[in-house]
Amino acid sequence: MITFFAALVLLILGYVFYSKFIERVFGIDDNTPTPAYSKTDKLDFVPMSWWKGNLIQLLNIAGLGPIYGAVAGALYGPVAFVWIVVGSIFAGGVHDYFSGVMSMRHGGAQFPTLVGKYLGKNAKVFINGLSLVLMLLVTAAFTAGPAQLIAQITPINFITALAIIFFYFILATILPINKVIGRIYPLLGGILLFMAIAVAVALVFSGKPMPNLTFENLHPGTLPIWPLLMVTISCGAISGFHCTQSPIIARTMKKESDGRKIFYGAMIIEGVIALIWAAAGMTFFNGTEGLGAALAAGGPSGVVNEISITLLGSIGGLLAIFGVIILPITTGDTALRSSRMILTDILSKFVNMQGKVKVLLVTIPLGIPTFYMATIDYTFLWRYVGWTNQLVATFMLWTAAIYLLRNFKFHWIASVPAVFMTAVVSMYIFYAPEGLNMDYQVSAIIGACITLVVVGWYVTQILKYRSLKQLEVDYRAL
Q1: Stated pTM of the model
Q2: How far apart are CA 113 and CA 99, in angstroms?
Q3: Could you count the other beta carbons within 10 Å of the beta carbon of residue 322?
């Protein structure tokens, strides 16, 4: 269990030390009023304590992502631990922190607005469409699974279950954030964390050998690690979905110093959850071959259910049902809420979008296509969530890098992971079956070329802002 516990310690140390470094680079000011106070509207801009914000953010960004994704990623063996640790600390934590605090600094701005300000209008138009597609895909994917399980264990049929879930989605989307989400979600976030800790403790005392990372088992499979692992395990390492959720909580922050605890902290907690479930997948089924067979037989839900019931008994069974039904629903509703906020920002240029009736008029057109997509096969939807998700994350990292560059701050903390993720998404779309399904080497070459072009663009930005800095220095000298 050395690799598992070493990874756990590194995640904790990453929060203790690296998150503070990230915070110093950003530069907080608790004397500046946050949008929760300066723009209070009793709907989205409502002050909340940091611990509520942390648990709500955790539930919003997690759902079943760090469970299902980690179990699937465990097929790559203990190398999954490395990606979870490195990704969470140096990519996901940075991504989530800047998406939250930049939104807060810009009046609770949505992610596409930040992209437009720092990457240009064309990028904003593209990311507006991409973000809405991602939100609707996530909402649909995280609705179909729970509805299927409800139909299996109750007399309610699938379509009726979908209708019930979507009725709740509409309510959660149009009601003030402190009425439903602010009251219930901190408790549900705590249950999600308790579920993971209980599984971890049971694993330690189960007597089953937990695999360590060695050269022999570095990659016990036929699929290439790069770039598939980085897309398979997104929640729990880095996920673009997070930056679409961060403005929800950024609009509730009481002070700027809460950002590190809320956003970076929630990412590290999610990394811990992913680490536990990846370990559970490898350990419980005696290696990657056994896990692969279990996934083929029962899918991620069957794997989670078997692990939970065997390790935790009847309580585990209840937690498994809770996880498969409640957790994705709590992610789907905030995804729809984010869609409503993004679309409201787009339409606000043309019409006044204030008031609950008008909010409802924005929400319903989003809900109709999402309801239809939820009737499509879950696994088909999820394949397209992965690449879209990581592409959004890449745009957010570049947005943070340009923000830091413009303010003459240490931009490498965002630009280095941005280059890494650019290489991931550039190659993945050409190689993956849901993409162009091209030869691995050809895909690698194309991906490398695209990455070099993007790096070239960023070098021009560095030179541009260095010149501006030098002009500023010369002006002050004069």
Answers
A1: 0.87
A2: 11
A3: 15
Residue indicated by tokens 């004069």: 478
Residue 247 CA to residue 36 CA, distance in Å, equals 11
Contact in structure between 302 and 109 (CB atoms under 8 Å): no
Going by C-alpha positions, the residue among 124, 110, 178, 121 that lies closest to residue 338 is 110
Two tokens, residue 423: 């290489």
Helix (H) or strand (E) segment spanning residue 429: helix 412-431
- Secondary structure (3-state) at 83: helix
Tally of residues, the chain: 478
- E runs forming strands in 325-383: none
Rounded Cα distance between 264 and 289, Å, is 34
Which amino acid is residue 20, in one-letter code?
K
Tell me how crowded residue 452 is: count the other CB atoms within 10 A of its CB: 14
- Token representation of residue 427: 């190659």
Residues 262, 191, 298, 424: what is their CA dihedral angle, to the nearest 10 degrees?
Answer: 10
From CA 463, how far away is CA 478, in angstroms rounded? 23
Give Cβ neighbours of residue 37 (< 8 Å, ≥ 6 apart). Answer: 47, 254
Residue type at 58?
A: L
CA distance 296 to 290: 10
Q: Which domains does the chain have, with CATH numbers?
A: 1-399 (1.20.1740.10)
Q: What is the rounded CA–CA span in Å between residue 239 and residue 88?
A: 10
pLDDT by position in tens, the chain (length 478): 788 999 999 999 999 999 999 999 999 999 999 999 999 887 789 999 999 899 888 888 876 678 888 888 888 888 999 999 999 999 999 999 999 999 999 999 988 899 999 999 899 888 888 887 787 777 777 777 777 767 777 788 888 888 888 788 777 777 777 677 777 778 777 777 787 888 888 888 888 888 887 777 766 666 788 999 999 888 889 999 899 889 989 999 999 999 999 999 999 999 999 999 899 888 888 888 888 888 888 777 778 878 888 888 877 777 766 766 777 777 777 777 777 777 777 666 655 555 555 555 556 666 667 776 667 665 666 667 788 889 999 999 999 999 999 999 999 999 999 999 999 999 999 998 888 899 999 999 999 999 999 999 999 999 988 887 767 665 676 6
